Recover the amino acids of this structure.
């Protein structure tokens, strides 16, 4: 039994939430947070994606199996990004070893 | 119901369900009835013609390559043409033959019948997927004529972004091809979920359906990533966006990550349908139920899942971090576990069975040899320390041809012979079938076994010339390729001749218990008049054929 329904007030609230998140994303880019900026922007984008999926695309009304597909799809993107990003992040840090440039004459 | 309770008068039609209606080949006539058909069987036949044509084209490219490599220096084509040949061979074989071959031909044809359905869930999308495939083929052929490609089928940057050849159009062609794959996958998944016959629970389905289902999941998840990667590449190539150029903050290894995120699972897109075919063939020709149904079914899903975690083993020497290399190397080993489960289960299925060595069964044996050999060398090249030695040598070429091409080609031929009576209602010449299968196998082994030795000896792949000490192995390999080509042409000839002059097959010439055989051969236009009622699994070989048919009531 599906109880949730997308009503007009919910659509309006979601729309306002999307606008707020957009301004938040833009605002955070002005704070000069360095590397954290990217992660904050991506985090906000993920939240916005789910708002669109569940409210505007009516996923909230669907049975669990259909919602699971979307969640799995999202997890696959996480998998792709995680293992890909792990590559450049660990190219110089794993395994831990002294920087040869720091002591060129052992 | 026991066998004794079957009343002779209520026995099912010995000609198969739907035999009193015209079969799908004769139900309608005229070119228009084919080109606009929504019948999954006719669409399968159109795909059949397409993939055979592209197998031929890819084969011609391969023979040109192998003939060029007969001598250490230039034999008959120049170096640029050689670069084009190995690229076009790869693109044609991967996207126009191996990926679509089994799902679009045999999947399209038998999957709905196996499920007791009159058609796939979306017949129009099915027809559209054929035309999208044709469109992709036209784009790719046009690109081949208009400049070709010399990048290798992997399109590695940075060269592919600056190559003067038609890389952009190749990318667009492959992008369009992916849309066709996705359309077929959606159809298979929805059909499997929603159109199973009454009583046909998931664990009663033929194993081919499980394999097709797992393949469809991989296609749905992986293909968009390939599309995205090739669009980025095309933008880079056409407009110089420098997305993978380190000078502008890009990373060339990123392209390899994106490319292999699709293209490694694509190996399973090619081989999983083969597993499905092999499971059907093993059970039908050993007249035995699978040693473990669930082991085969779930290992297909396991391979589909774990296949997404292993792409980095293609990049061990590309500058991949040692951390990622370790993770990917270890995860890659899991595929071997699921594959081994399948191999052991197939072999165990033979035990206690009543084995008949018809042509499809012989292809199963060839499959087993090639797949295990290719799989074991796969474990070797997934080991980082070994891969450093073998990477980009002929060892890798031999490995992936053994596992991908050997696996897919032998399973494709097994399916072509196994379901030939179902598709066309005729029997092929068994003796010629056996002989051609031996020719294909010997040709294949002679083509690629020497390449293991060449690679281990240090001969790099994709080189136009080579030192004279490698020549005898190259001559062996080229001889094998010509034998393989001859074997394939003869096998095809045997089937084409049987279309006209083969003996009438009857509905179930192999005595199989799988559900596609309860219909007439060839099936009627709508397969069934009513949705069948299934009261048994697809592998009840302990039941007599009459009882088995009684427990799969269909009209």
């Amino acid at each position: 039994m599906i109880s949730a329904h997308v009503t007009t007030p919910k659509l309006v609230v979601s729309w306002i939430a999307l606008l707020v998140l957009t301004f938040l994303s833009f605002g955070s880019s002005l704070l000069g947070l360095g590397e954290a900026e990217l992660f904050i922007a991506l985090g906000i984008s993920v939240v916005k994606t789910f708002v669109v999926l569940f409210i505007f695309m009516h996923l909230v009304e669907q049975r669990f199996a259909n919602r699971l597909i979307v969640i799995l799809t999202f997890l696959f993107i996480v998998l792709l990004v995680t293992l890909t990003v792990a590559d450049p992040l660990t190219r110089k840090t794993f395994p831990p070893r002294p920087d040869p440039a720091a002591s060129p004459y052992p | 119901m026991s066998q004794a309770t079957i009343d002779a008068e209520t026995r099912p039609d010995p000609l198969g369900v739907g035999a009193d209606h015209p079969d799908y080949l004769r139900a309608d006539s005229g070119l228009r009835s084919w080109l606009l058909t929504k019948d999954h069987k006719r669409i399968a036949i159109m795909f059949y013609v397409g993939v055979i044509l592209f197998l031929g084209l890819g084969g011609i490219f391969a023979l040109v390559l192998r003939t060029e490599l007969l001598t250490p220096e230039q034999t008959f084509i120049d170096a640029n043409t050689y670069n084009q040949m190995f690229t076009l061979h790869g693109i044609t074989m991967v996207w126009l033959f191996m990926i679509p071959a089994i799902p679009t031909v045999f999947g399209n044809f038998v999957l709905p019948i196996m499920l007791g359905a009159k058609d796939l869930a979306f017949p129009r999308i099915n027809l559209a997927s054929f035309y999208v495939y044709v469109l992709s083929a036209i784009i790719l052929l046009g690109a081949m004529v208009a400049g070709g490609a010399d990048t290798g089928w992997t399109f590695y940057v940075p060269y592919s972004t600056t190559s003067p050849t038609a890389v952009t159009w190749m990318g667009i062609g492959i992008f369009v091809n992916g849309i066709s794959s996705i359309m077929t996958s959606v159809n298979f998944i929805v059909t499997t979920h929603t159109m199973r016959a009454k009583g046909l629970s998931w664990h009663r389905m033929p194993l081919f359906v499980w394999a097709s289902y797992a393949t469809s999941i991989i296609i749905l998840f992986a293909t968009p990533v390939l599309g995205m990667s090739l669009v980025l590449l095309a933008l880079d190539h056409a407009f110089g966006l420098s997305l993978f150029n380190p000078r502008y903050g890009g990373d060339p290894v990123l392209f390899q990550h994106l490319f292999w995120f699709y293209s490694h699972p694509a190996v399973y897109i090619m081989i999983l349908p083969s597993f499905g075919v092999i499971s059907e063939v093993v059970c039908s020709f050993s007249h035995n139920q699978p040693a473990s149904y669930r082991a085969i079914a779930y290992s297909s899903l396991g391979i589909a899942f774990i296949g997404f975690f292993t792409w980095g083993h293609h990049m061990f020497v590309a500058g991949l971090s040692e951390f990622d290399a370790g993770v990917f190397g270890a995860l890659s080993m899991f595929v071997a576990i699921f594959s081994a489960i399948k191999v052991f289960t197939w072999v165990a299925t033979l035990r206690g069975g009543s084995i008949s060595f018809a042509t499809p069964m012989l292809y199963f044996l060839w499959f087993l040899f090639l797949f295990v050999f290719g799989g074991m060398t796969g474990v070797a090249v997934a080991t980082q320390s070994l891969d450093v030695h073998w990477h980009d040598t002929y060892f890798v070429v031999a490995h992936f041809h053994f596992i991908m091409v050997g696996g897919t080609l032998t399973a494709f031929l097994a399916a072509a012979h196994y379901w030939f009576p179902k598709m066309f209602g005729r029997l092929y010449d068994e003796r010629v079938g056996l002989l051609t299968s031996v020719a294909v196998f010997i040709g294949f082994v002679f083509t690629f076994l020497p390449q293991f030795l060449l690679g281990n000896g240090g001969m790099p792949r994709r080189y136009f010339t080579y030192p004279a000490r490698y020549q005898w192995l190259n001559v062996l390999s080229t001889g094998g390729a010509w034998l393989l080509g001859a074997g394939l042409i003869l096998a095809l000839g045997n089937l084409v001749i049987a279309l006209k002059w083969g003996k009438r097959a009857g509905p179930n010439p192999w005595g199989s218990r799988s559900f596609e055989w309860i219909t007439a051969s060839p099936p009627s236009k709508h397969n069934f008049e009513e949705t069948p009622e299934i009261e048994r699994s697809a592998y009840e070989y302990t039941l007599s054929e009459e009882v088995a048919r009684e427990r799969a009531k269909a009209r």
Remarks:
- The two ends of chain B are 20 Å apart (CA to CA).
- Chain B is about 65% helix and 0% strand.
